[in-house]
């Protein structure tokens, strides 16, 4: 399995600070972030690899700024600031010797009150648990014709490549699921084309100038081998500093840490999680449709009864005596025992009751008046 260089930012959750370190950052730095500690503070990082290098921004002053390094409680090293005149970015403050291809733990301790600004780690590994870093001088990149190399402390590994001629190009083959191209931009009139795996080119005109800018992002790719071809489309300056590649997880070998903050390709949704809710929705729809069909059949049956009988017998049976028209009830005097309404009038009035009523009107003259002389609950 090929060895690649993985990159881890100072803000990665796999780096543990004790106590918490201060945070800073400028556009020149990776992800525009750095971390700085106080005297006796420490940072630890566990990784799988065969070597590791620590990069930081070293302030341009004469203050003592010292760090101590310890790998697996056995391999040690130190850094003492060289007191540069100006702030120096992407400074390799310490590199480990060659290690066994296994899990290791690096502990960094700040020995002075003033510290350096920790930026990122680069470590050689066969694991695919972290993003790979590819520098502009990597031998796997083919420039045609040769591009101009520029050196500056603002660039990763202190270098970048530049083209000022239309038709200049480079190609890079890699294995992974995504790639991004990072570069300084000095000219917003430049036009750059990017073609993946022989597909149609995508053109990019930078909207702004600056350092450490993303000029291309492939998005998700199928796991496996890919080739990116980049070309200058005019005579304006085009730069490239480094690439970041998300490796194919299927090619992972060797031990790996318990967790990683590196984004991974999204896994497909299990079929059961899709089929279950769909079947549930269809079941509910079927129940509702069945209930609606039954109600429709009942309505049709009632309609047929009405057409045959002239009324609905079920509706008649459910009517109550309260459906009798109250205006047909003769006026009564509570203490009167006389029947002032003739039977003929009663028969005439009873005919006004709705035909669907199942009750026959009573002869109100035969109903005895209520006896209010008995105990009625009033004193």
Structure description:
The protein is mainly beta and 379 residues long. It has three domains: 1-130, Jelly Rolls; 132-246, Sandwich (Jelly Rolls), CATH 2.60.120; 270-320. The chain has three helices and 23 strands. It has a five-stranded antiparallel beta sheet, with no helix packed on it. The protein has a five-stranded antiparallel beta sheet with strand order 13-16-21-18-19, with no helix packed on it. Strands 1-11-6-9 form a four-stranded antiparallel beta sheet, with no helix packed on it. Strand 18 (192-196) and strand 19 (202-204) form a beta hairpin. The longest helix has 39 residues, at 271-309. The model is unreliable at 250-275, 313-367 and 372-379 (pLDDT under 50).
Map the helices and strands.
Elements: E1 4-9, E2 15-18, E3 22-24, E4 34-36, E5 42-49, E6 51-58, E7 66-71, E8 75-80, E9 88-95, E10 102-110, E11 117-125, E12 132-135, E13 141-144, E14 148-151, E15 159-163, E16 169-175, E17 178-185, E18 192-196, E19 202-204, E20 210-217, E21 225-232, E22 238-240, E23 242-246, H1 271-309, H2 313-317, H3 343-350
Antiparallel strand pairs: 1-11, 2-5, 3-4, 5-10, 6-9, 6-11, 7-8, 7-10, 12-23, 13-16, 14-15, 15-22, 16-21, 17-20, 17-23, 18-19, 18-21
């Amino acid at each position: 399995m090929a060895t690649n260089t993985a990159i881890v930012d100072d803000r990665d959750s796999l780096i543990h600070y004790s106590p918490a370190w201060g945070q800073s950052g400028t556009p020149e730095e990776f992800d525009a972030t750095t971390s700085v500690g106080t005297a006796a503070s420490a940072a630890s990082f566990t990784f799988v690899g065969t070597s590791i290098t620590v990069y930081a921004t070293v302030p341009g002053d004469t203050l003592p700024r010292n760090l101590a390094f310890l790998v697996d409680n056995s391999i040690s090293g130190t850094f003492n600031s060289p007191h540069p005149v100006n702030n120096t970015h992407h400074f390799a403050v310490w590199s480990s010797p060659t290690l066994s291809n296994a899990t290791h733990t690096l502990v960094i301790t700040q020995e002075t009150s003033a510290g350096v600004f920790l930026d990122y780690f680069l470590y050689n590994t066969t694991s695919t648990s972290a993003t790979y870093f590819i520098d502009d001088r990597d031998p796997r990149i083919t420039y045609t014709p040769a591009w101009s190399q520029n050196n500056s402390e603002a660039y990763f590994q202190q270098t970048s490549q530049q083209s000022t001629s239309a038709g200049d190009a480079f190609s890079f083959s890699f294995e992974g699921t995504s790639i991004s191209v990072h570069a300084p931009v000095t000219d917003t009139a430049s036009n750059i084309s990017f073609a993946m795996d022989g597909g149609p080119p995508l053109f990019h005109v930078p909207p702004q100038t600056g350092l450490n800018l993303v000029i291309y992002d492939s998005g998700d790719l199928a796991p496996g081998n890919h080739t990116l071809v980049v070309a200058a489309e005019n005579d304006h300056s085009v730069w490239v500093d480094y690439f970041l590649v998300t490796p194919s997880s299927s090619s992972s070998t060797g031990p790996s840490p318990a967790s990683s903050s590196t984004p991974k390709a999204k896994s497909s949704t299990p079929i059961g999680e899709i089929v279950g809710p769909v079947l549930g929705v269809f079941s509910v729809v079927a129940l509702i449709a069945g209930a609606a069909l039954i109600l429709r059949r009942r309505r049709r049956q009632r309609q047929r009864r009405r057409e045959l009988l002239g009324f609905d017998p079920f509706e008649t049976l459910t009517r109550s005596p309260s459906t009798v028209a109250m205006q047909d009830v003769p006026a009564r005097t509570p203490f009167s025992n006389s029947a002032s309404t003739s039977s003929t009038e009663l028969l005439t009035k009873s005919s006004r009751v709705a035909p669907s009523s199942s009750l026959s009107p009573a002869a109100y003259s035969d109903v005895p008046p209520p006896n209010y002389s008995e105990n009625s609950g009033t004193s």
